[in-house]
User: Fold this.
Amino acid sequence: MENQQNNDVVVDRGEAKWSDLWLKEDYWAIWIGFFILLVSAFMIFGARGDIEKKMADYNAVIAAEKAKPFKTVELIQATAAKKALTGASLPSVKSLIGITKTPGKWSSNPVASFVTPAKGDQAAADAAKARAAEALTAAKAAQTAAADAQFKDEALNKAAVDAVSAWESADKAAAAAKVSAGSNIFLSLVILGLGLGVMFSIGMMAMGNNVPQFFIGFLGVFVLSVFANFLGGFAPTAKYGVNAEIMSIVLGLLIANTIGTPKWIMPAVQVEYYIKAGLVLLGAEVLFGKILAIGVPGIFVAWVVTPIVLISTFIFGQKILKMPSKTLNIVISADMSVCGTSAAIATAAACRAKKEELTLSVGLSLAFTAIMMIALPALIKAIGLPEVLGGAWIGGTIDATGSVAAAGAFLGPKALQVAATIKMIQNVLIGVTAFCVAMYWCTKVECNEGQQVTAMEIWNRFPKFVIGFLAVSIVCSVVSGNLGNDLATSMIDKGVVSVAKAFRGWMFALAFVSIGLATNFRELASYFKGGKPIILYVVGQSFNLCLTLLMAWIMFYKVFPDITASI
Amino acid sequence: MNFSPTMRQWFRFAAYGAMFWLVFCVGLPRLLSLSESWRTFGAAQDKWNIHAGAVYYTDVPVTRDTETANRAAVRQALDKRLQAISKADTGTGM
Assistant:
């Protein structure tokens, strides 16, 4: 019975013992996350000296060339080489990321999701390459002529600018004409499935579960995740925000509520295990340095409005709506006010919400996001709000990160720039949100009224994976801050984070397939009773819309108009 | 015709699956494609390589560029403000 209860919630709990380190899935989630991150860090930081040296060389070239009156070939080449100098492009890391590739986007031909056909014509590629080489020689000659005149001859400078521009176009054309061999992801999917299966099986073995049964079931869950990723890549539905996570739930629900979840799969339906491991990996992406990206106005819009909306919505749900479930209330509040699915997952795990509550929350968010990502830009255009204000409004209110960028792009490049950055700053809040919710649940919700909770009790109740999640976030943030902008971008943002996000995506897909496989439609429908979740979402979002618009206007147009003018 | 319970379950699975596909993956996109706004919206996503269902900012490649651009804008604004302050100080003989 207790086991059944533990299976229904996103996090289990118990009294803390040393043996928990190898017996509890919270810790195994941390070990799995740490293992993946350490392997990637080892690969990337092993090449640090080489990356640092190359970066210094490129920076020296860029600094010297920037002093010239026009963009030179060397400046363009060094800038491109610097951009391509990433941890993810190291051969070992590239192979690791290659194994985690998900089925790609497709529209009319399903095979295209798994197979990339060979493209290009060797003769055309050679001709384009020759034209680029010719244009490069001409550009360098024109540059030399301009330099010989000490860049004082306007006609020579103009000729050099034209020649460099012609070379850039020829180079782009040569890159586009390049011949590429066809590839498919079938072998990498097999390796990934077996690899993840072995990794999770080690934990299951230590926790005293039947490993062969788990492993066989895991392969079933993995195949369903692959199929869900394939469905999530269907371009027409992806346009309105349907992703692999949603398709995973739908697929799982469809199986569980029609033919029934096969018995052999059940041992691998381990929602919490996959979610927690995915969240620990997500910690690497929660980089606190990001909050400074758009200065004080961004911090006010994302970090002041969001907690106010979250807390107000939760209080409204408890005091006015009298929501029957506190956990459902906080998951919907966080999902709506912070950043959609990722916030819902982190909060649900932190407060031990039920699987159905997480499903309902993610479903609500998808439905309202699909409406808002079209309605909000249309409204902004109709009332003629400036792009920066519109972008800030979109970034602070639409739930899903991808939809925010899409809605911003719909308005224009400035709106996209502000919207995506505000959302990124808000994304970083999920670490703080998960920690605060876990603390609040330990100290206030899961104890009797007036009861004093000791530090030991808090420790016993606290979901330990949150510590792993925060530890990873803090370590990555500190390392990123100490590396300096260039190295941090190259080794953390485009290195460790690239590996973490690839594995995190798979773990969330495994978790959502498992949620679907273990959810009963009738139970799910019972949570909609009285329409309270919808009322909670609508009221909270309306408040969010008003407060965000007001704060964005004050910050971007009254207090910091100079930042707005520079965007 | 008499079908076994297992067969009926499989029929239900196929029927619900087909219904979901027809409504959400065929009908809805076709309906939405009739709208000019949706077409523009889809084109914007294609242009910037955005997946509207991306879960986290790291799943949206364009965020890296927007972050860099915003940091540059903030630096530029701060420089301008500092310059204005130092000009004002010089003007008042401070």
Observations:
- The two ends of chain B are 99 Å apart (CA to CA).
